[in-house]
Amino acid sequence: MRLNRVGPGHRSLSVALVAFCVVALLVSVPIPGKATASLQPSAVQPAATSTYAVTWNGVDVSTAGTSSSALAIDFSQSANLNFTWSGTSAPVTISDARLQMYYFGFAVSTRDQIVSNPPTNSIGHIPLSWTPLSINYLLEGVYRLTASFIAPNGTTMYSENFYVRGNAPLGFVAVIPIVLLLIVVYELYGLVRSGRYAAFGRKSAGPPPSSPPPTSETETPAGESPPPEEPGAGTPPPSGGGS
Amino acid sequence: MSATSHGVGCGVVLGIVIVIFLQQVAYLDLSDLVPALEYLVIGAVVGGLLGAGIGWLLGRSYLSRHPTGETAAPK
């Protein structure tokens, strides 16, 4: 194998480097309590006397604050959300109810319900209907959503994080899981066949291949190389320039 | 390319893909960037190490079953 050519110093250095990387990664893994605590609080705290609430098909989304208690939804069905606020000490103006879905920290889907000429009230609600048809056949799994109350000046008055577990149509017809499964199968096949590459490594460690052995006349087919002594016996005459 | 390095390549890809697949089947939450990247890096490292070991073992097994290249003197 090719590793046989690597000196012991290089090998120990590479092993030490890999061990250092593994230890550094394992140390940097957040503890579960710390990880869940960073997901729980909302981005903006409401006023002390105000009450903001968001319901998803009649279910309060505050009950789905963790990924383990995610709302089971169907990406092919529309969801009716209701953004309500009440009991605010001072009347507030909410001009936009926003729903965002996050994947790898980026918003992959955003739905806004903008209210034209929003009234200033201490009580109000904004209905929002969201049908994630664009990701219906693409994604499934657990995702974090953020429901936000936006003021006319762009200030987020209140936002709440919650989790949904989206199911693909028929339970499995989504592009990304199928593609991932195909990649897994292909790489497993490549891993199983990786032993054959040891032969290549051994060949490259050896001397370069010598010139091919001379072929005997008995092995050469008769039609491929006509003997020079009989130029006109077995070969057709040259065609010349005639048309 | 040796069997070990080929196993490392396959293992790294497998580790990353399995992490993303676990999110798709609702075993992991990759909504936030920082834990998602940590999961991916850990999956790649663990997969690479396992792939290296598997590739090395399979390479030895293959060479024991196909003793070709006698010109390379084993140490």
Structure keywords:
heterodimer, A: 243 residues, alpha+beta, Coagulation Factor XIII, Chain A, domain 1, five-stranded mixed beta sheet, four-stranded antiparallel beta sheet, 4 helices, elongated, disordered C terminus, B: 75 residues, mainly alpha, 73% helix
Task: Summarize this structure briefly.
Chain A has about 240 residues and is an alpha+beta fold.
In words, what does this structure look like?
The complex is a heterodimer of chains A (243) and B (75). Chain A is α+β, with helices and mostly antiparallel strands and 243 residues long. Among the domains of chain A are: 44-173, Coagulation Factor XIII, Chain A, domain 1 (Distorted Sandwich); 177-205. Chain A has helices at residues 8-27, 32-39, 175-192, 197-205, and strands at residues 51-56, 59-60, 71-74, 79-86, 92-93, 96-103, 106-114, 120-121, 124-130, 141-150, 156-167. In chain A, the strands form three sheets. A five-stranded mixed beta sheet of chain A has the order 3-11-10-6-7, with no helix packed on it. Chain A has a four-stranded antiparallel beta sheet with strand order 2-1-4-9, with no helix packed on it. In chain A, a hairpin with a 5-residue loop joins strand 10 (141-150) and strand 11. The relative contact order of chain A is 0.14. Chain B has 75 residues and is mainly α. Chain B has one domain (3-65). In chain B, 73% of the residues lie in helices and 0% in strands. Chain B is built from two helices and no strands. The longest helix of chain B has 33 residues, at 33-65. Chain B is elongated and about 50 Å long. Chains A and B meet through helix 1, helix 2, strand 10, helix 3 and helix 4 of A and helix 1 and helix 2 of B.
